[in-house]
Amino acid sequence: MNISSFRLAALSWLFAPVLSGGLLLSSCNSQPATETGQSATDANAPASAGSVMPTGAKPAWGPNLGPEMQAVIEQLMSFDNKPLPELTAVQARKQPSPADAAMKQMRASNITPPPMQVDTVNRTLVPGVTGRIYTPKAGTAPYPVIVYYHGGGWVIATIDTYHSSAQALAEKTGAVVVSVEYRKGPENKFPTAHDDAFAAYQWALKNAAGIKGDPNRVAVAGESAGGGLAAAVSMMARDRKVALPKYQLLVYPIAGSDTNTASYQSNTETAPLNKAGMEWFFKNYLRTPADGKDPRVNLVAANLKGLPPTTIIAAEYDPLLSEGKTLADNLQAAGVKVNYKLYEGTTHEFFGMAGVVPQADAAQAVATDDLKGALK
């Protein structure tokens, strides 16, 4: 299989076995981020813990790719995944994920994860929707609550795949995190995932005390499709007169349905996500192209007034880059306080890879500082 065709596929996630020890959480590379998201010294400097270095040349699509990020992408390519457009959703869910690639790089670099600082339990939230609850081992209840939505284009991936991000948020913010396993397409088309996400948020408000949480300090967070879900939940809460989240963390969110933006056009070959992959996700989740114009999907054209303060994390090599920046600008124009951070040298999916990618450690620090400030 050639490299170009692999890049069409590489957002094919599966259940990453990351539940024993939080493999991708903390890094010895914690350096303060600049306004562009680079480290205060050099965003492309090699990791200080273990030897995280690529073995080949940078890909043509990523001339500014950081060495640690490149090393993870090389591990992802070693899986020889098939392109998403050639697969059914069931087949795509069985392929190795970027989380698997990061764990493989951690093993290659002899990076040992620290012990988990949270307890976890799985439970049914509402009919058809399960979740994993992360409760800090330290601190004093009641804790703030973060309702977290994983990525995967509303089609693939699970709370297992994104375990590292949920664990990081719980450990670093000192909050109870409810990671939501919403239903996915094509078996459950739009708006199922969006309705599930809102139902899970309402469950968290109603049941916060029973999970050692404070119902008056609840935020939402998500990555990729989950970032879009988090913002949609805030809009639904506003419109349906439900208590608003105190904050929203949107990590490279799917915020529009236009696949001809500048970043889509410049990211046709990128891994782990590119234009063809996103078109496949839309095809599998949306009932018709008209669903792409729904404000819950097309956030960049939605009414954003009255939404909670927001942090948006962006990656350099990502077809979703343009719409994420447009969303940030539109939120500000609507009077919403926004902290927008672009992390150069990174790709889509970097946020949960703090064990190997220093920009991920920096992004997690920004996200958790903002959440802690809002939930204190």
UniProtKB/TrEMBL annotation:
Residues 30-57 are annotated as: Disordered. Residues 1-32 form the signal peptide. GO terms for molecular function: hydrolase activity. PROSITE patterns: PROKAR_LIPOPROTEIN. It comes from the Bacteria. Residues 146-351 form the Alpha/beta hydrolase fold-3 domain. The keyword Glycoprotein does not apply. Gene3D superfamilies: alpha/beta hydrolase. Keywords: Hydrolase, Signal. Pfam families: Abhydrolase_3. Residues 30-42 have a biased composition (Polar residues). This is Lipase.
